[in-house]
Amino acid sequence: MEIKKIGILGAGAMGGGIAHVAAQAGYDVILSDVDLAYVDRAVARMDSFLAKNVQKGKMSPEEKDAFLGRITRTTGVDAFADADFVVEAIIENLDMKKDAFARLDAVCKPQARLVTNTSSMSITQIAAATKRPAQVAGMHFFNPPPLMRLVEVIRGYYTSDETVRVVSETAVKMGKTPVEVKKDSPGFIVNRILMAQFIEAIRLLEEGVASIEDIDAAVKLGLNYPMGPFELQDYAGVDIGYHVANYFCEEFQDMRWNPPLALKALIRAGRLGKKTGAGWYDHSK
After folding, report:
1. For the domain 190-271, what is the CATH code?
2. What is the mean pLDDT of each run of 10 residues along the chain (285 residues)?
3. Fewer CB within 10 A of the end CB, N or C, for the chain?
4. 3-state SS assignment for residue 176
């Protein structure tokens, strides 16, 4: 089946970015969230980005209008009934994702592929909420989706070869480079490596080996990374890193993934309103 219409559930930074990439690739896009205001904000971000391209002569006003005209705004999942391919991009909560996939499974046509943008969670468990686990896979985009080239294509236990092929081809059409994750393991490739780096950086801080600023500088200058581990945690959200570390610890049954005390303290302080920056750096300045 040729993929012509893509549904995207979740219009936050990731969902809106994926919608941007899909529309840019020429797909008809259905963008949905619990409140139309979230969808409108996502489309407004695209409009602003495209307006700059028009000003720079990179696209015509007509091309901009055609781009935005490919996006249908909605709430709920009913509008996904005629979608060929659906990307779930909601919060990183396994129960919420399973509920979303059960609702999608009930609405979407039998041949539709359903993929999750989860960065770490079990594709097999998410697929178990449907009656089509062979047609469910992970499709992990990176933030921000319009700029980051990689997409991890993750197999669940029952994911078919055909689904992996369709998801990979769709990623290529979106201008991305897909890599196949052959085994449904927490964190897949990138986040498995990244979380180890995050945790080790925090332990260096706890042990008094170096400051946050010097650890970031060392990683950027010594490993040629564009951002240091603390900068990247703040960019992605320290809450997300905390939840992923806890998930790894539970799934692997290995205490090396247990969130360091400094991260736990930062999370608690942020929730109590004692750290206005809500990150390793003070972003309130």
Report:
1. 1.10.1040.10
2. 95 97 98 97 96 94 96 97 98 95 98 96 97 98 95 98 98 98 97 96 97 98 97 91 93 95 90 63 76
3. C
4. coil
CA angle 144–278–260, rounded 5-degree value: 95
Surface-to-core class of residue 208, CB atoms within 10 Å of its CB (0-12 exposed, 13-18 middle, 19+ buried): exposed
Give the pLDDT of residue 198.
97
Identified catalytic residue from 88, 152, 168, 243? 152
119 as an active site residue: the answer is: yes
Buried b (16+ CB within 10 A) or exposed e, 151-177: bbbbbbebbbeebbebbbebbeebebe
Residues 119, 120, 122, 168: which is the catalytic one? 119
Residues of the chain with CATH 1.10.1040.10: 190-271
Using CA atoms, how far apart are residues 203 and 188, in angstroms rounded to an integer? 23
Tell which CATH architecture fits domain 5-181: 3-Layer(aba) Sandwich (3.40)
- Active-site hit among 120, 140, 231, 243: 140
- The pTM score is 0.92
The alpha carbon of 134 is separated from its chain's Cα centroid by a whole number of angstroms, namely: 22
Residue 152 falls in the annotated catalytic set: yes
Tell me which of 168, 191, 231, 243 is the catalytic residue: 191
Are the C-beta atoms of residues 116 and 88 closer than 8 Å to each other? yes
